[in-house]
Amino acid sequence: MKKNKKTLSPRQLYLRKIKLDKSKIVIIQIAVLVAFVGLWELSTFLGWVDSFFVSSPSRIIKTFADLWKQDIMKHIGITLLECVLGFLISTVVGVIVAIVLWWSETFRRVAEPYLVVLNALPKIALGPVIIIWAGANMNAIIMMTFLICIIVTIMSVLNGFMSCDKGKIFLLESMGATKFQILTKLILPYSVPNFISVLKINVGLSWVGTIMGEYLVSGAGLGYLIIYGGQVFKLDLVMASTVILCLLAALMYFSVCLCEKLIARRRRTSK
Predict the structure, then answer these.
(1) Mean pLDDT of 88-105
(2) Is 101 helix (H, G, I), strand (E, B) or coil?
(3) Residue 6 — left, alpha, or beta (φ > 0 → left; ψ -120 to 50 → alpha)?
(4) What are phi and psi of 175, to 5 degrees?
(5) What is the pTM of this model?
(6) Band of the pLDDT at 6, cuts 50, 70, 90?
(7) Mean pLDDT throughout 48-64?
(8) CATH superfamily of the 56-270 domain
(9) For residue 4, how many other CB atoms are within 10 A of its CB?
């Protein structure tokens, strides 16, 4: 006799549907990428576009192979170090400043218009000043990354703090909770999803700041290779460096996503 198939519960069906939807999205994303790369290669091979101006996937792979035999890992390491340091410093300092602004309403009201103005200021305009302050070295690049990320971090984290349920805050205050207890027991746990979103935003901003800084002062790094390739009309070098940047940025982004999943799993198991 044939065994009856096990009937799935509504929850199991829902989880299976979510898993299938995620798989479908990933497959579509991969298909779009493959189609784009294939069309790019085909258009240059058939002469629809000039490969001198847009390069091609095959030429980029060849360029990357040539760079691998030289010192590409040195350039990748320098750029990655600058980006990660700027990312971490701006995130830590931004969270600390956001906590101070949340703690003191007077300080927050005084600082708010300055934060808005600084956020609107084009940071590239501060390039000469940064070079004078930090010197034409890695410190200037890290400072550029820091300045691009810091204001967005402060404002985003602070908005997350301020969006916390006021009723819960009043409840804790009525029970005699101190401001530090409210911060650690309510505000920070409540703001974890917002904090993860800030990290995702800072991944992109930190790479923008790093490459912008390398455009100004660097003698090594992927930004330097892009500038050098543009100056000597080596578009293959420019595109290969850009592709490497995209891969590194994706790696940082997926690292943040992995942290998000681990935190979510830990919060579920702790309930």
Answers:
(1) 92
(2) helix
(3) beta
(4) -90, 5
(5) 0.82
(6) low
(7) 83
(8) MetI-like (1.10.3720.10)
(9) 6
